[in-house]
Amino acid sequence: MVVVSGKDMIKEVSTRAVFDGRPDGLFHLMRQFGKKLGVVFNDGTSWLNTRRVVLKYLKNFGYNTRHMENYISEECRALVKLRLSDAGKPILVNNMFNITIVNILFRLVAGKRYDLEDEKLTMLCNLIMRVFRATDMSGGILNYIPYIQYIAPDLSGYTEIKNIHVTIHGFLRETIQQHQQTLDVNNPRDVIDAFLIEKVQSPDVSFTDEELQVVCLDLLEAGLETVANTALFCVLHIVRNDDVQRKLQAEIDEVIGPQRAPTLSDRTRMVYTEAVLLESLRISSVAPVGIPHMALDDARLGNYIIPKGTYVLMALYDLHHGEHWKEPGVFRPERFITKDGNLMQDEWLMPFGTGKRRCIGEGLSRSELFLFVTNILQKFRLKIPDGDTLPSAEPVDGVTLTAEPFHVIFEPRT
Ligand code: HEM
């Protein structure tokens, strides 16, 4: 395994086809029937084809369009309503965005939404959160000593990760079967229907049931933890920095006002809010080493020969906390604002990766984060309960980074 650091090397690895592979270790493939399937842990022509088709179907059902904005706004209204119902009480915020995020994705993928306190979905989200804590992106001991699954299945985490994926796949299989039973080939309702119709109409080029299940799993796993943890860190830095909260609310009051629902078109006039989101993406770097790439052949990189089959991790957390940034540990949105008050993009910021394997969820994530923050801060002042210490900004390790548990009081703004 090689860890690549620095803007130039990370860009080079991300843009050379020879590094477009994905690892094939036990940890990475046990979630997908031991095979390279889907988008995230797949490569070659099968990956290219599946990625293209998934993006096409997502777009057909409203991805990155006004429909998607409507789904996010609807979920924000539900979230604000829930927080109004428990206003003034300390809320454990660590899982607060989970069902909201799944609902937005599942409107496109499976055409349905769940109540924000739905027990089955809460359990499912908790399982996904647990699997992301069980190891890290390298795949840990399960990848390097795979036969440990027979010697110490419990101690190595194998049993837990396997059982969790059995449950998640059971849920996805059930969702796909419900679609099969009600399928109308002339009226596709969502991404799952589109895949099933392709299967009926062109069986020779179609995707298998396992492939469809892994595509759903990819979207669920890649799209849930990352956004939920970035939103969580956003809340964390807002409650740790009262001046940030005051400036955000001043901008919301000026551009949106107290009543009108925030929209994505407000973004161009809300430079400070956009800067807070960029700073949250930088400082939290929830995908600290991206998703591992793999060398598909022997390749020269700088002064080194990287042998075929080597896993290549990108030191994104390091990139976002390195010398380029002044006082990298300080949450300072102003670093993304020019002297003239415009938003400044910085090429050292790459939370979604770059190149052909770049994240497909960047547009969705940025829209979600903007609407989460503006909807919540329009209606509430966020406070740490009396007697609680400030939550720590130190991340908790795993496949993604998260925060230690902490409580927040949502105080309605008058
Ligand atoms: C703040 C939120 C997010 C962050 C920070 C993030 C970050 C990343 C990163 C670093 C990669 C790896 C890029 C590489 O391999 O070079 C990635 C890939 C991916 N992301 Fe995201 N992501 C986020 C949200 C989402 C969402 C909402 C979705 C679902 C729609 C999603 C779906 C994917 C998929 C499918 C891939 C694999 C792409 C491929 O291998 O071709 N991500 N993401």
TrEMBL record:
Its cofactor is heme. The keyword Oxidoreductase applies. Signal peptide: none annotated. It is found in: Endoplasmic reticulum membrane; Microsome membrane. It is a peripheral membrane protein. One of its GO terms (biological process) is xenobiotic metabolic process. Keywords: Endoplasmic reticulum, Heme, Iron, Membrane, Metal-binding, Microsome, Monooxygenase, Oxidoreductase. Gene3D superfamilies: Cytochrome P450. InterPro entries: Cyt_P450, Cyt_P450_CS, Cyt_P450_E_grp-I, Cyt_P450_sf, Cytochrome_P450_fam2. GO terms for molecular function: heme binding; iron ion binding; oxidoreductase activity, acting on paired donors, with incorporation or reduction of molecular oxygen, reduced flavin or flavoprotein as one donor, and incorporation of one atom of oxygen; steroid hydroxylase activity. GO terms for cellular component: endoplasmic reticulum membrane. May be involved in the metabolism of insect hormones and in the breakdown of synthetic insecticides. Belongs to the cytochrome P450 family. This is Cytochrome P450.
